[in-house]
Amino acid sequence: MESTRIKQIKQNIAPLRQQLLEHPLYKSVQSLEQLQVFMEHHVYAVWDFMSLLKSLQRDLTSVDLPWVPKGSPQTRYLINEIVLGEESDVDQHGKRASHFELYINAMKQAGCNLSHIDEFIGHIAKNIPVDKSLVLASVPAASVNFVNDTFGFINSGKTHVRAGVFTFGREDLIPGMFLKFVEELDKQEAGRVSIFKYYLERHIEVDGDHHSLLGYQMMDELCGDDDKMWHEATDGIKQALQSRINLWTGIHKRVAERKMVM
Asked: What pLDDT sits at residue 240?
């Protein structure tokens, strides 16, 4: 059962969520080539989602040696269960894979250009700062802005704000008509988007249901009855949703450009 605080957040962010659900980006993606544009931009949001999640695990559990108990056992359980599902889920064949790795496999199958994301991850693996890695890898501007916004939250030092952003601001709001388009494209382009279709279905099943409930519990645990913390978290969530709207608008522009040259 949702707490009153959670219901208040949902009411406060409803207009922004509706903007995302009704964004023209979804209807503008009408071909495999346009879907490739979407995925080549969106993959960075899949990556920084994992970074946001791991920052919460770092704050809410003990990841240093020697180990000592840290925080609430209930909160530790909640974040660790979410990490388990995101970092080591199963692919369409039942093999373990993170959601990021699953997305990369979907991009490969769809014929996307992976040179930029591969270069970006290579720079990150060498401990080059995120903002510099984005520039070095020539990441699309809309994705650069989105990732930088995410790391602004990560570096804010406010765990409750990041928990709110993770729970409410990073749900991939996938309208039914977009999933239907992918399903139809999968029939037309046999063997090209089946992994992406699985990714969307799995993401809706896991993140949109079970993980959301865990996130609500985590927010209640972290904020308690502190009005200031709930207010800060709500403001952060609104900023994160606006950042996603900006990303969608940037991708929509690039998708439209791809349509013009087709």
From this structure: 96
